[in-house]
Amino acid sequence: MHTVIYLRTMKVWIKYLIGIALGVLTAVLFPVDSAAGSSTVAFLTDLFVRFGRYLVVPIIFSSAIISINKLRTSKLLLKSTAWTAGFIVVSSLMLALVGLISILLVKLPRIPITNELAGEIIGIDIKALVLSLFPESAFAALREGSFLLVSFLFGAIIGWESASDLTAFKPVFALADSLSQLFYHVSVFFTEIMSVFSIAIMCNWTISFRAAFATGIYTPLIVMLLCDFIFIAAVVYPVIIRFMCHDPRPYRVLYASLAPMMLAFISGDSNLVLPVTIRHGKESLGIKRRSSGFSYPLFSIFARGGSALVAIISFIMIWRSYTALAIPFGDITWLFFTAFGLSFLLGNIPSGGAFILLTIICTTYGKGFETSYLLLQPAAVIMCSFATLLDTVTAMFGSYVVSVKTKMVEHHTIHHFI
Length: 418
Hints:
Layout: H1 2-9, H2 12-29, H3 35-52, H4 56-73, H5 77-105, H6 126-131, H7 148-162, H8 170-214, H9 219-244, H10 251-256, H11 258-267, H12 274-283, H13 289-302, H14 305-322, H15 329-342, H16 353-365, H17 380-405
């Protein structure tokens, strides 16, 4: 009885930490890196990730209706949009700049050139991306599990119109409100059970990490990404919170981000971590639903500056592995703005976006670099983990800034953080 009560009152981030530790121990102590073991762990990981995504679309859709409705009626929609869009653009620009400066200042060891053959090259079809926003049937938006903007836009349209006549559309609002609260409470169970599923996810991640780390080739890259993350999460964003929000305790936001950061790092999936960030935004930071239902999905879809940072560092590292010549300033400028611009188009790629962005940059750049991304393929999982980690921190800090600037937050003491 006492054990059950203790588990219920245990902080969520501690549950995830225990799950991660057990995942590492499982990978170390048991022969899971064999062919059969790796296949089983990979299957369980894919199964649990799909399970974790199960309620993302219903939450996004129903919460978007409520958020847009309330923001429009309270005349805060334009202000919320401006702050959200502004932080997304500025943070993406800043992350890309941090990545560029760090790799230019620190010359990482070159990677041995291999003769591997290129696989299928994945690109971003911008026309198809735009057309996917308006599927042939509006209800097809509810079947889209990767590109969340489709579901969000459908909910936003309903929320906007339902606010035009509050009396006539009161039943619509009431239904959406009930569904939003229902899906949120169900997602609470999902976020709790994901701490158990994180054992398999971390075990699978450890197998990939151990294979990449054992060679020592990618260790400098991992160290640089870790240092950039610490600088951004522990220095840059707290300073922004301190001066923009006049918050004397900016590290409360970082503390509230622990569980989302853990899940983001081991899964590398921006959609999977979204229910966890929404829950911590509400129950720890006190962000109201009308704000969180609007800002969190948009940050998850568009704030992919972490992928730009990783892609920039990776490309310059590849360049230096091929030649001792300095990369021309014009090429550096092209790389920076290409990575920055394309990062906004990764919304339909919830996992693996950083490596896909690197692939597109290499193939677009040409000059013999078309298949050079293969040098970093063994470290792709780790690269995407850091990219998702940075994007999740951006979403947590950014949504908090938006809620403070629009006065849609009820501050909680750290003692009440989940």
